[in-house]
Design goal:
By secondary structure, this protein is an alpha+beta fold. Helices cover about 45% and strands about 20% of the residues. It has 2 domains: about 110 residues; about 180 residues, Trna Endonuclease, Chain: A, domain 1. The protein is built from 7 helices and 13 strands. The strands form 4 sheets. The protein has a 6-stranded mixed sheet with strand order 4-5-6-8-9-11. It has a 3-stranded antiparallel sheet with strand order 2-1-3. A hairpin with a 5-residue loop joins strand 12 and strand 13. The longest helix has about 40 residues.
Length: about 325
């Protein structure tokens, strides 16, 4: 009987290994039938091996009980029985470890079966993450039904740029943090309209700019003073190792002058890109030469030299001496 069980176990193990090789080959060579067959056979053989292991574990537990009874009856064989129990205990631990490994593998196989052939999207408004077929033309968030869903980090950054200009597309009372819709700032370089942003989102047509994202002009309505300034928007999901990476930070240096106007960076950190948890504004001059050269911004620079928005209702305002500050009035 033991020989038959051993042969069955070896055969099940060979089938499990063959299924795994079939699955890996299908993924590597993008062969869908191989992937599906590999997943099915891998799940079946995993269940078979788990059944065999459960049966073997029950048998070992029964042996342990019998050994414990013998210990109480045979004092002379105590040393021998103790050694046997230690050996059985080590075998049981190994079986438990193998059982846990098989359970984890089954979970990974299930996740792999969900992801193969699908594209990961993240909603820019409600931060829902979902997977869908790559050949679908009209993608909407399954939770908030917005069209603003992103499958690349660049699209997430573009969503933050949209929010700065126009606010939350699902909230009519959110006008963003740039006062361009209710007067005040006049764009020198015309930004994209709401419709253009949505169109470029769907077509994966992201704008490429050598200059900062926006250039504005402001004329004070009563005092008559004016300011010209530029804004570059950056969004990151989180800080890593006390900093955020910003590629080509040094390229804005040649635009930070009187001809173009001062350059300011508006930096959002946290999900979602629409109204992130932390929003900072700071002038380009606040960065060190090393940060500009290496292309990163330290978290200490944001906290010490930047102005952080309090709450989630603040708007940006330009002062007479050319500083961008947060304004919380109506």
């Amino acid at each position: 009987m033991k020989i038959l069980e051993l042969i069955t176990s070896v055969f099940a193990g060979i089938l499990w290994l063959s299924s795994l090789i079939m699955l890996i080959s299908g993924v590597i060579y993008l062969n869908a039938p191989f992937v599906i067959s590999g997943i099915v056979f891998l799940m079946l053989t995993t269940y078979w091996l788990k059944t065999i292991l459960d049966r073997e574990r029950s048998r070992i537990e029964k042996i342990e009980l019998e050994k414990e009874k013998e210990i109480s009856l045979k004092d002379k064989d105590i040393d021998y029985l103790q050694k046997e129990l230690v050996h059985i205990g080590s075998v049981t631990e190994k079986i438990k470890e193998l059982d846990e490994g098989l359970n984890k593998l089954s979970e990974r196989v299930e996740k792999l079966s969900e992801i193969v052939g699908r594209v990961r999207y993240e909603c820019i408004v409600c931060k829902t993450v979902f997977f869908t077929d790559s050949n679908e033309k009209f993608i909407k968030c399954p939770v908030c039904c917005t069209d603003f869903v992103a499958d690349t980090p660049e699209k997430l950054g573009m969503g933050f740029e949209y929010w700065c200009l126009y606010g939350n597309p699902k909230d009519e009372e959110d006008y963003g943090i740039f006062p361009v819709q209710k007067g005040g700032w006049k764009p020198i370089r015309r930004p994209l309209s709401k419709e253009e942003y949505l169109k470029r989102f769907k077509n994966n047509d992201l704008p490429e700019r050598d200059q900062p994202d926006f250039q504005f002009y402001y004329l004070h309505p009563s005092e008559g003073w004016e300011q010209k300034f530029q804004i570059e928007c950056k969004w990151r999901k989180e800080t890593k190792y006390g900093k955020i990476d910003v590629e080509n930070l040094k390229k804005y240096e040649k635009f930070d002058n009187e001809e173009y106007g001062k350059v300011f960076l508006v930096i959002g950190i946290g999900r979602p890109p629409v109204n992130p948890s932390n929003v900072y504004v700071l002038p380009y001059s606040a960065f060190s030469d090393e940060e500009k050269k290496e292309g990163y911004i330290l978290e200490t620079t944001l906290n010490k030299r930047g102005l952080k928005r309090k709450g989630n209702k603040g708007k940006l305002n330009i002062t007479k001496d050319g500083k961008l500050v947060w304004y919380y009035g109506e």
